[in-house]
Amino acid sequence: MSNTMPWRDRMRVKVDFSNMMAENIGERGIRDIDFSEAFENCSYAVTQTDAARNAMRWRDLHSVQSDVLPEVKRIAERVRRSYDTFVVLGIGGSALGPIAVQQALNHLHYNSLPAETRNGPKFYVEDNIDPQRMSDLLDIIDLRSTAFNVISKSGSTSETMAQLLIIIAALKDAVGDEWASHLIITTDRERGNLIGVAKAHGMDTLYVPDGVGGRFSELCPVGLLPAAVCGIDIEALLDGARYMDELCTGKTAGNPAYTLAVLSLLAIKKGCNISVIMPYSDSLKYFADWYAQLWAESLGKATDRCGNIVHCGQTPVKALGVTDQHSQVQLYTGGPFDKVITFIGVDNHRANVCIPRELTEIPDIAFLCGSTLNALLDSELYATQYAVSKSGHMNLLVCMPEVNAFTVGQLIMLFELQTAYMGELLNIDAFDQPGVEEGKNATYALLGKRGFDDKREELERASASTIRYRV
Amino acid sequence: MSNTMPWRDRMRVKVDFSNMMAENIGERGIRDIDFSEAFENCSYAVTQTDAARNAMRWRDLHSVQSDVLPEVKRIAERVRRSYDTFVVLGIGGSALGPIAVQQALNHLHYNSLPAETRNGPKFYVEDNIDPQRMSDLLDIIDLRSTAFNVISKSGSTSETMAQLLIIIAALKDAVGDEWASHLIITTDRERGNLIGVAKAHGMDTLYVPDGVGGRFSELCPVGLLPAAVCGIDIEALLDGARYMDELCTGKTAGNPAYTLAVLSLLAIKKGCNISVIMPYSDSLKYFADWYAQLWAESLGKATDRCGNIVHCGQTPVKALGVTDQHSQVQLYTGGPFDKVITFIGVDNHRANVCIPRELTEIPDIAFLCGSTLNALLDSELYATQYAVSKSGHMNLLVCMPEVNAFTVGQLIMLFELQTAYMGELLNIDAFDQPGVEEGKNATYALLGKRGFDDKREELERASASTIRYRV
Q1: Which residues have CB under 8 Å from A32's CB, separation 6+?
Q2: Segment A201-250, tens digit of pLDDT
Q3: Using CA atoms, how far apart are residues B395 and B391, in angstroms rounded to an integer?
């Protein structure tokens, strides 16, 4: 690629979907004519998503936070200056983005680096309530030098609030009256339980903007503060999102998110109820987890916008290249034609590692000597695409020139927009999650929360489980 | 459960499949009569798997390694005495078992513990060839005090051998002539590339027994050495496998692996091409990865034993409770009826964590105060089972009294036997992986390995990819 091209354009994330097409993989692929027709007919997805822009506040986060960024940076600087360890208390959308971005952009053994070479304080995201996990965390951190970022829009997320109560008591033990200064709250500006607490104790507070749901929140303070604390260039992250948004606004031609959405729709129509995401880079391993929430929770819906029962939604599957070639590729080549595999490839890795000429007495591995891990990884990605395609299974490649804050920002916006378009194409609300209420209410009932007596009775009636179905 | 019961029986892993049944979840479930009929008709799976016992050497590992265990322990003691860090170089079956068992049975922040409270040396499993990963590992370990366990049955696994060449050169730099003493080889006793190297340099060597494929190898030295190095009770692990094997040998009634296999078959017939495994314990998080390889690579097959084209195989999906309630449960309750969810519950976690009475000014969270994380986790598991069942989706529960070496040994054998029975029921070879050859050969061709010229020409012909499918 030409070096005279502007840097942002050289860093453009691209999509190669040749291996989705019948032309390349045979009859199980998509015919060119069907793709062209769908590409034309589905354009309303772009029009309507653009028209609803004001309701989709997540889409503008790259350009509306000029007031917010100085505050994010101020708090980040305070944490970096005053604390050795930074812990996010959050779950779901409050955790997956921060984890993904940290893994993508920092050292893979960040926490094990000595303080002087690390990019910031040690970083943990506690996104579960497993008692061993909390106990084990408290074994290894020093509360006196640890700051906690509590992230919950509503301030009523049971898991996060339970963690918070434990941490408040532990901080009171460890630092006495100073406990509140160790807490940073990210929550709704007005509603919710946390804002009162934060104000009463003068805690640093950041806000989740209206219209930004959990799984679309990585580019608001939910994700920006943890990233900034760990030394990540949050402006470049936002600039990447802006760049991708520009590529996708007001047009279908050259719009990679729209192209992906059309391909997904056609694949679903061909019986693919599974969407595998398989980055070939350890740095993007947890990006797959972030994607899995976005795709599953947005598109897995029982009813469409008209109230028709549809039970739609592809199941996302996380894989990692080349590791999972030794775990999943037998299934991907030999198994059913029920999945699309989205490979993510990286042109330039952050390290180059040569494979030295050792063990030259073994002829079988002579081809490795003098090569690089980079070349081996690239070859395996290409070879796997080839094998999956030859077996007639649909797959596509998202190409990243590098993994940096700008390209990661693009990737976030790319998949968020693909998801929004898919909501239009499936005629569902991609931004709600009614199916999680039942489990939440049942938890409240089991734990005796006031107002859930009826639900508790319902659970008791149902619990007369049948002994003959146990072994 | 009665405390007068023998310990091993109290530690028995059980299965509750009430929520697979129409009786409990409605018409999408399995009718009692269909289950009974299948349970009777499929019994040949047990008979034939038992009859093939001698060919399935993985099944007897709990009882045939009395000669091997002293050598495993001797090497483990040497490592524990002489090294601060222990690194496994391996991929797929050589990595997923060691990772799963370590996560299950040791501290969740094992490597961050101070040496005096840690159960052994720091532990890393390098199961990818990402150049940044290798580079980042070398940043944080001290080669002079690091031992490497190279695990490759054939001694020709490209990824592992590439890593080995890099590590040999690095060790020569760091410790000179002593380099070979830092390497421990786990490989085939006679065939393969590594055995000659190991002998020539007097390296400690352990053997992968014949008839034990990668994904069934955790209970042979592949898994036992890493576990022993990290202070895990490998005899209890093997005893757990023996206990489960006894429950499953020679009978269908009371055989939990057979019960799971019959349920899987019926679920597949009802259109479930997805198998979700969702442990409610961080300690079992990577057990899901181990399971994903076992299930995918064993059952994802293009042809059956008679050569008929079948393209069978469920796609395994890894989830973690409660974390993924905030990511996947919307899909599991609202989405298609295309999956079975296997929850894994734990009766007694290794820690009990109380939720203190703090922030009592917030009425919404009063129900949490005075409870425990344990109760919250249990309630959320039950509530999620309830919500998934109420939405008509099949799910079952594997119940572990505790997560300890004995119960983890049971879990390994339970799923291995379920997989073997499924091979019989689907009439496929559950122990081969022909579908990975294409990708391997293409990699060899791309990297110029001798003897792969034809494949390279084939690849060149195919690579004339079409620019119009890029965006």
Answers
A1: A21, A22, A23
A2: 999 999 999 999 999 999 999 999 999 999 999 999 999 999 999 999 99
A3: 11
A215 → chain B, closest CA residue? B327
On whether any CB of chain A is under 8 Å from the CB of B446, the answer is yes
Contact B132 A108 (CB under 8 A): yes
CA–CA distance, B414 with B244 (Å, rounded to integer): 6
CA distance B447 to chain A (A): 7
Q: In the annotation, is B311 catalytic?
A: no
Question: Which structure tokens are listed for B94?
Answer: 């050589």
B241 near B410, Cβ under 8 Å?
yes
Return d(Cα A239, Cα B316) in angstroms, integer.
37
- The Cα–Cα gap between A329 and B176 comes to 40
B234-266 pLDDT, tens per residue? 999 999 999 999 999 999 999 999 999 999 999
d(CA B88, CA B68): 19
Query: Within an 8 Å CB–CB cutoff, is residue A187 touching chain B?
Result: no
Q: Are A224 and A184 contacting, i.e. CB atoms less than 8 angstroms apart?
A: no
The answer for A 343-372 residues in CB contact with B (under 8 A) is 349-359, 361-369, 371-372
Q: What is the ipTM of this complex?
A: 0.97
Peptide bond before residue A175 is cis, with ω within 30 degrees of 0 = no
For Cα atoms B253, B255, B260, give the angle at the middle one, nearest 5 degrees: 115
Percent of chain A with pLDDT strictly greater than 70: 99
**Helix intervals (H) in A7-94:** 7-10, 22-25, 32-41, 44-51, 68-82
Tokens, residue A125:
């995201």
What CA–CA distance (Å, rounded) separates A298 from A292?
Answer: 10
Residues in Cβ contact with A85 at an 8 Å cutoff, skipping those fewer than 6 apart: A121, A122, A123, A124, A141, A142, A145, A146, A147
Closest CA to A90 of A132, A124, A137: A124
In the structure, what pLDDT confidence band is assigned to residue B465 with cuts at 50, 70 and 90?
low
Cβ distance A401 to A407 under 8 Å? yes
Q: What pLDDT, on the 0 to 100 scale, is given for residue B466?
A: 66
Q: Which residues of A touch B130 (CB under 8 A)?
A: 280-283, 349, 373, 377
Peptide bond into B262 cis (omega under 30): no
Q: How far is CA A224 from the centre of its chain?
A: 14
Closest CA to A61 of A210, A268, A254: A210
The answer to whether the CB of B302 falls within 8 A of the CB of B435 is yes
Q: What is the mean pLDDT of chain A?
A: 96
Contact between B342 and B276 (Cβ < 8 Å): yes
- Collect all residues of chain A within an 8 Å Cβ-Cβ radius of residue B365: 156, 158, 161, 165, 193
Alpha carbon of A78: minimum distance to chain B alpha carbons (Å): 25
Q: Do A317 and B312 touch (CB under 8 A)?
A: no
Residue B60 clears pLDDT 60, i.e. is over it: yes
- Work out the angle at residue A115's Cα, subtended by the Cα atoms of residues A111 and A119, and round it to the nearest 5 degrees: 70
Catalytic residue list of A: 297, 326, 440
Q: What is the model's pTM?
A: 0.97
* Contact present, A109 and B137 (Cβ < 8 Å): yes
3-state helix, strand, coil in chain A (%, to 5): 55, 15, 30
Euclidean distance between CA atoms B125 and B115, whole angstroms: 19
pLDDT, residue A217, reads 98
Of A111, A159, A165, the CB nearest to B369: A165
User: Is B175 near chain A, with CB under 8 Å?
Assistant: no
**B467 pLDDT band (50/70/90 cuts)?**
confident
Catalytic site includes residue B326:
yes
Residues of chain A with pLDDT under 70: 1-3, 464-466
Query: B412-450, pLDDT tens digit by residue?
Result: 999 999 999 999 999 999 999 999 999 999 999 999 999
pLDDT for res B468: 82
d(CA B97, CA B218): 5
